[in-house]
Each structure stands twice: as C-alpha cells, then as structure tokens.
Amino acid sequence: MEVRLSRSEIVERIKKLIVDVPNFPSEGIIFKDITPVLQNGIAFQDIVNLFSSTIPKETTQLLAIESRGFIFASAIAHHLGIGITLVRKPGKLPRPTISHTYALEYGEDTLQIHKDSISKKDKVIVIDDVLATGGTAQATEVLCEKLGAHLLGHRFLIEIDSLKGRDKLSATVDSFIHC
Ligand code: AMP
Q1: What does residue 161 show for φ and ψ, rounded to 5 degrees?
Q2: Is the pTM of this model over 0.70?
Q3: How remote is the CA of residue 27 from the centroid of ligand 1, in Å?
Q4: Candidates 2, 58, 105, 108; catalytic one
Q5: Domains, the chain, ranges and CATH?
Q6: Rg for the chain, CA atoms, rounded
Q7: Cβ neighbours of residue 91 under 8 Å, at least 6 residues apart?
Q8: Using the 8-state DSSP alphabet, how is residue 88 labeled?
C-alpha cells in the first residue's frame, strides 16, 4: 500500500492537530481531542494509511474499541478489505455476549463482545485512539483470550507514556504518537 509521506512526517503533522483539553471529562485529566484529525481529510487519510501499513497480512479481524476506535478501525478495515469486530460498553450488542469487568481509578468498567464474533481461527489486531492506563486494552486482551482468538497486537494513535499502559499488555503495542 502507498504511504505518501514517511511515518515521522505523518506523525509530526498529526501531532499538531491534536488538542489537549485540560480537566475534561474530570479534574486533572488532559483529554486528547482527536476530532481535528478527523476533520482534516488529508490528515485522516494519512493516518489511516499509516495504521494500515502496520497491520500484518495474516490479520483476519480488527477489534475496534468503543467509541473512537470504531472510527479508525472502520477506515482501516475498508482500506484493507478485512472485517471489524466491535468491543462495546454493556447493553449495546444485541446477541449473546461475553464480558470482562476491570478496575478504573475510581470504580469499574465492563466491555462486551459477541460470543460468536471471533474464534481460534482468528488473528486479530486491537485498534483504539488512546492508550492511557491500559485497562481498556487489557480487558480486550481478556475477551480475545476467552474466545480463543490469537492476538497479534495493539495499534494506538496516541500513547500517554507516563501512565505505563503498555506494561499491562501481553501483546505487542505500536503507537504513533507518544506524549
Ligand atoms: P485506558 O483504559 O486508561 O487505557 O483508557 C483508554 C480509553 O479511554 C480509550 O478508549 C480512550 O479513548 C479513552 N481515554 C483515556 N484517557 C484519555 C485521554 N487522556 N484523552 C482521550 N481519551 C482518553
């Protein structure tokens, strides 16, 4: 696949579009707003091309994490002609699911996936916008394991290095922007 610019050139352009929003959604959080990347047609195309160039050929499904993971995974899936499997918040998927509940700094959260969506025949890559504490991505690893699928790795647009999310993950991690 054709990538017009080098990885570092694309990353430098994308970095400039991401807006840090302090104290959103709660005090002390610096929210990484990626919506300006989506609004810029060339930047969005470049980042989707870059994501796509890192997806191994043997990948059978992209695991898209709700909700911004859906946006990137859909575009990459369209580009590569492979499917996406949705990993969703509770109560959104209509057929039988399996769940994994994980701890947050305050409280807990749950992710679900359709029981019959992936199996041991699948080789999957997880896609999301931000790797922060790693709880969400780790929960996705557990769901993958429960269904017997082979997890090839994770791809993130942004990784917040100080939160050490990658230390929680067993599969390889590739993040384009580190902050
Ligand atoms: P975590 O489980 O802590 O790694 O959080 C990852 C999930 O929460 C991803 O789906 C992100 O979309 C979202 N998220 C966490 N921290 C941020 C942040 N600082 N800015 C934007 N999104 C975030």
Answers
A1: -55, -40
A2: yes
A3: 15
A4: 105
A5: 56-178 (3.40.50.2020)
A6: 16
A7: none
A8: B
- How would you write the pLDDT of the chain (179 residues) with one tens digit per residue? 555 789 999 999 999 999 999 999 999 999 999 999 999 999 999 999 999 999 999 999 999 999 999 999 999 999 999 999 999 999 999 999 999 999 886 789 999 999 999 999 999 999 999 999 999 999 999 999 999 999 999 999 999 999 999 999 999 999 999 99
Tokens of 111: 């992710």
Cα–ligand 1 centroid distance for 130 (angstroms): 5
Residue reference for tokens 């997880």: 126
Ligand 1 proximity of 21 Cβ (cutoff 6 Å):
no
Rounded Cα distance between 93 and 108, Å, is 19
Q: Is the CB of 129 under 6 A from ligand 1?
A: yes
73 lines ligand 1 (CB under 6 A): no
Annotated active-site residue 68? The verdict is yes
Residue located nearest, by CA, to atom 23 of ligand 1: 130
Q: Which DSSP string corresponds to 36-66?
A: HHHH-HHHHHHHHHHHHHTS-TT--EEEEET
